[in-house]
Amino acid sequence: MSAIPSLQTRLDLAGLDDLFTADERIVRDSVRTMCERRIDPYVADWFERGEIDDIRGLTKELGELGVLGMHLTGYGCAGMSAVDYGLACLELEASDSGIRSLVSVQGSLAMFGIWRWGSEEQKQRWLPDMAAGTAIGCFGLTEPDHGSDPGSMRTNARRDGDDWILNGAKMWITNGSAADVAVVWAQTDEGIRGFAVPTDTPGFSAPLIKHKMSLRASVTSELVFDNVRLPADAVFPEVRGLKGPLSCLNEARYGIVWGALGAARSALEAAITYAGEREQFGKPIAGFQLTQAKIAEMYLEYAKGLLLANHLGRRKDAHTLRPEQVSLGKLNNVREALDICRTARTILGANGISLEFPVIRHMNNLESVLTYEGTVEMHTLVVGQSLTGLPAFR
């Protein structure tokens, strides 16, 4: 009997590596190598304790690797392709959704917001340090009472001479307590506007959110603004309304389309390995039909998800990607990744709930990814409106 091919070879059953150029595979493998060295040995402990050791050191290493704002150009950013960025997100989330969230919020929300909508002075002040990982950013849109309806936000900014006075609160903010700058969206007399808020400004605070059972290897905070006085040059000069924050969210959602597949792949790998080693009734459980049916279905959805992610990435690089297509990708890939993790948990049985294996950690994390940056319901309605031509949000 011939030897069983390596797990990596078996996981490329569909030949999906052929989708990517040699340079893209180098980017992917570089991120994977860094994650194997710097994150994988420690992340289960971070998750269990609910804190990341030396987040600033980790962020600096991610900057040195070039993944922070890697799809942006200039200001120290790597200027790489959307597919490169997607593959990086996949590898980061294969380690943990919280680590991918750190990178996604830094690059696709905070950095992209400044890069796309900020003044030249704001870009020069913040982007080089953020790309290097020596400054951390966060993104303030969601509020305690306003998630899917950001247009009803209560955080407000009013003019006081040449300054702005910012009041309100934001909730569930990744990187918040560690951030040096917060990109904050607020109601003004001129509509919703964006601000680059240094976190050492008097009146700003970022209490850490505790008692989470998901994304525990991630800094999650509330942002509180108590008469925060900002100079005139803190506001983004031109953008008004929801166009600004929604453009940032679209960037981050694109990364999630890829990232969720990393969690799925990690769970699938764990399930295949475990099933090959766990013996019941005299043979490995991988040799039973029901287990093989689960593994085949898991791989099928993973492969389809990667095909979709790559297609959307190629469209993004061709500047033809539409927001509703990103919604389609997030809706499908996160939902299927979560189902893959849940199925993997059944293969591992009781061991599936142990942090000795990555499955329950990925499963819990994806419960958050399923609803953040657009809930399942909202993305379903975006897709539904695209197909029927009729909005159903109200």
Automatic annotation (TrEMBL):
<dbReference type="InterPro" id="IPR009075">
    <property type="entry name" value="AcylCo_DH/oxidase_C"/>
</dbReference>
<feature type="domain" description="Acyl-CoA dehydrogenase/oxidase N-terminal">
    <location>
        <begin position="21"/>
        <end position="133"/>
    </location>
</feature>
<keyword id="KW-0560">Oxidoreductase</keyword>
<protein>
    <submittedName>
        <fullName>Acyl-CoA dehydrogenase family protein</fullName>
    </submittedName>
</protein>
<dbReference type="InterPro" id="IPR009100">
    <property type="entry name" value="AcylCoA_DH/oxidase_NM_dom_sf"/>
</dbReference>
<dbReference type="InterPro" id="IPR036250">
    <property type="entry name" value="AcylCo_DH-like_C"/>
</dbReference>
<comment type="similarity">
    <text>Belongs to the acyl-CoA dehydrogenase family.</text>
</comment>
<dbReference type="Pfam" id="PF00441">
    <property type="entry name" value="Acyl-CoA_dh_1"/>
</dbReference>
<dbReference type="InterPro" id="IPR006091">
    <property type="entry name" value="Acyl-CoA_Oxase/DH_mid-dom"/>
</dbReference>
<dbReference type="Pfam" id="PF02771">
    <property type="entry name" value="Acyl-CoA_dh_N"/>
</dbReference>
<dbReference type="InterPro" id="IPR013786">
    <property type="entry name" value="AcylCoA_DH/ox_N"/>
</dbReference>
<feature type="domain" description="Acyl-CoA oxidase/dehydrogenase middle">
    <location>
        <begin position="138"/>
        <end position="228"/>
    </location>
</feature>
<dbReference type="Pfam" id="PF02770">
    <property type="entry name" value="Acyl-CoA_dh_M"/>
</dbReference>
<keyword id="KW-0809">Transit peptide</keyword>
<keyword id="KW-0274">FAD</keyword>
<dbReference type="InterPro" id="IPR046373">
    <property type="entry name" value="Acyl-CoA_Oxase/DH_mid-dom_sf"/>
</dbReference>
<dbReference type="InterPro" id="IPR037069">
    <property type="entry name" value="AcylCoA_DH/ox_N_sf"/>
</dbReference>
<dbReference type="InterPro" id="IPR052033">
    <property type="entry name" value="Glutaryl-CoA_DH_mitochondrial"/>
</dbReference>
<keyword id="KW-0285">Flavoprotein</keyword>
<feature type="domain" description="Acyl-CoA dehydrogenase/oxidase C-terminal">
    <location>
        <begin position="240"/>
        <end position="387"/>
    </location>
</feature>
